[in-house]
Design goal:
By secondary structure, the chain is an alpha/beta fold. The chain is built from 15 helices and 23 strands. The radius of gyration is 23 Å and the shape is globular.
């Protein structure tokens, strides 16, 4: 395929890297482009008219990954005049004009604060035949006011805040996402209701630090109140949230989780390190005793709670004793899973210039020991569920071996991944449906249920999945220029305008 023929809508593709925030931002990017008249490119289309990279800057190899992918697109673009490439997200916010200097075939660079400008920037770059770089230092409009093309019929992300007021020494996010900005509770709940009305069964409330929600309007208990209010929304069966910070975690949130039927008993709470000395150097504002105390309270209120975490190995100055303390906390906390990372130096963060940067081989060896410890525990915790009945929300793309094994996959209420046999219901169960089944086997990272399902409930989300429909959340483009459908691409002239 070449670029759009005269009169045809231009096609787009969004490539996403990084966290759930970026995944949700990409839904907004898709919504904006479709609102402006673009059409999503087919999966097999290797030459869409517009390719948008929504980038992450957290990991050390993020830059290499982006520039490698941009390099692969250069010859594709050269053969397809009128094709455009845009780079947004955290790496764009950090590198700014350097992206166009290193990859002059890029047409648009936009930051984390002005996602809504993308269609206008694409139009301007095409009109001026020159790259457009627009990076704002503060939020232009709250992202949730933008139109959104949801990727799932059954599960949706809802941002309750953007930005972060913490100063963790390893983290570059606050400098790229800015200070915390909170949405008003009524706006959040209106979006959640709209999703539930569209048939979405599960909502995840998103924020860099969800349990500091309310700081802008002076209510430190706002997050617990928000969870309880979600319990009053008809049709909403599951509520999750990510990520809280231990320093702000309050007892009222535990009570709201335990007492609100549709709030799932799953908690993702980053530990980062079990060593108080390392936590102090990370500027994490809590110590291991407080962290374990929170977990103890959560399990007292919800014995079935599945707790997951993030852990960094090899932070500057980490000693063998510090690392041993991390293993001790992991064993005591009994996590159901853990996202584990080797410390990655990020320019611009205080940790990047700290003394005591550890050799790669030391970090690697500790990392492997941590993985072994975590998997020993997660496997033991999962084995406790063999013989138990679980409620599974059927998902898309969770099981890579499902086609070969004849299973389908989904998530239990506690967030665990379940691969289940369909039995006589093969062909009748859709993504978005609810299945009850019995766990027959446990592995460190998933559960299997190989008997026939005990029950299957068809849902509106399953109907939408079967029909190939996804929810779309309308937005109000406050403070942005009016954006019309993009004009058809000009006839090829033998050159690439942006090069």
């Amino acid at each position: 395929m070449t670029t759009a023929a005269a009169g045809s809508p231009r096609t787009y593709q969004v490539r996403t890297y990084g966290c759930q925030m970026n995944v949700h931002d990409s839904e907004r990017i898709s919504g904006l482009l479709e609102d402006a008249g673009y059409v999503r490119a087919a999966e097999a289309d290797e030459q869409p008219d517009v390719v948008v990279f929504n980038t992450c800057a957290v990991r050390e190899n993020a830059d290499n990954r982006l520039y490698g992918n941009l390099g692969h697109l250069r010859p594709v673009k050269a053969k397809h005049p009128g094709m455009q490439i845009a780079v947004g997200g955290c790496l764009a916010q950090k590198d700014r004009g350097d992206i166009v200097r290193k990859a002059p075939w890029v047409d648009v660079v936009f930051g984390t604060h002005n996602i809504g400008s993308l269609p206008a920037l694409l139009d301007r770059a095409r009109h001026n035949t020159a790259a457009e770089v627009e990076i704002l230092e503060s939020l232009e409009v709250f992202p949730s006011t933008l139109p959104t093309r949801r990727e799932s019929t059954y599960a949706g992300w809802v941002s309750i805040s953007v930005g972060c007021n913490n100063t963790c020494t390893f983290c570059i996010v606050p400098s790229l996402r800015g200070k915390e900005k909170d949405r008003r509770p009524g706006d959040v709940l209106a979006e959640v209701r709209a999703l539930a009305d569209a048939g979405v069964l599960e909502v995840t409330l998103l924020g860099q630090n969800v349990n500091s929600y309310g700081v802008e309007f002076g209510d430190r208990y706002a997050f617990g109140k928000l969870l309880r209010a979600c319990g009053d929304i008809d049709g909403l069966e599951r509520v999750r949230f990510t990520s809280p910070h231990p320093k702000d975690f309050t007892d009222d949130v535990i009570a709201a989780m335990a007492e609100t039927p549709n709030v799932c008993h799953s908690l993702h709470m980053p530990l980062q390190s079990g060593s108080d000395d390392v936590l102090r150097a990370m500027r994490r504002s809590y110590r291991s005793e407080k962290y374990l105390g929170i977990i103890e309270k959560v399990r007292a209120a919800m014995p079935d709670a599945a707790i997951t975490t993030d852990i960094i190995v090899g932070f500057p100055g980490e000693t063998e004793a510090d690392f041993a303390r991390t293993l001790d906390v992991v064993r005591e906390a009994r996590f159901s899973s853990a996202f584990t990372f080797q410390y990655s130096k990020r320019p611009g963060t205080p940790a990047a210039t700290m003394d005591g940067q550890l050799p790669k081989q030391v970090v690697q060896e500790r990392y492997e020991r941590l993985i072994a410890c975590v998997e020993e525990i997660t496997w033991a915790e999962n084995k406790k569920l063999v013989g138990e009945t679980v409620e599974v929300l059927v998902a898309v793309g969770e099981g890579r071996k499902d086609e070969r094994t004849g299973r389908m996959s989904g998530r239990a209420r506690d967030g665990r991944l379940v691969h289940f046999a369909t039995g006589e219901l093969a062909g009748q169960i859709r993504p978005g449906d609810i299945v009850h089944t019995v766990v027959t086997y446990a592995a460190p990272h998933h559960l299997n249920a190989d008997g026939a399902p005990l029950a299957h409930r068809r849902t509106r989300a399953g109907d939408a999945a079967e029909a190939g429909q996804v929810p779309r959340t309308p937005g109000v483009l406050l403070g942005l220029p009016t954006i019309g459908a993009p004009a058809a691409a000009p006839a090829p002239t033998g050159g690439c305008a942006a090069n």
